[in-house]
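Page 47, continued from p. 46.
Same chain as before, 163 aa.
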Amino acid sequence: MNKKVLWICHAAMIAALYVVLTLCINAFGLASGAIQVRISEALTILPYFTPAIPGLVIGCLISNTITGCALLDILLGSFATLLGALGSYALRRFKWLVPLPPIIANTLIVPYVLRIAYGVEDGIFYLMGTVCAGEILSCYVLGMILLFALDKSHKSLFAKKNA
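Result:
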């Protein structure tokens, strides 16, 4: 299989998983808002294994669009995911640091989106705290569980060979 085809397949699968997980958690009202635990954010550890970063960004973009987010949220939320995924990829040599970039990017960007796009009147630092808490649960706790679960079989799941 061609490396480009494999990379596109990884990105497409990651995007699809991100959307499905976001829709599932959205059914419980936890995918957006001041207090959110978007379990799909656990996938932001995947740059540890594969550089299919566009899958995360496209998944976030589609998820934010179909869950009815404001345009600013669609754009800046996806940008935060891009920054986080790039940071995770850059830190892939340091397993325990991989979840930090998405946590930091979302903590710094999403509260302003909530304030500007949705008129949430809570203080910025409160919103940073709630977003950060949700991101820690999603990216660090669930993400690291996923990372260690995939670490045993990553060579077959994320093969980089030409066949």
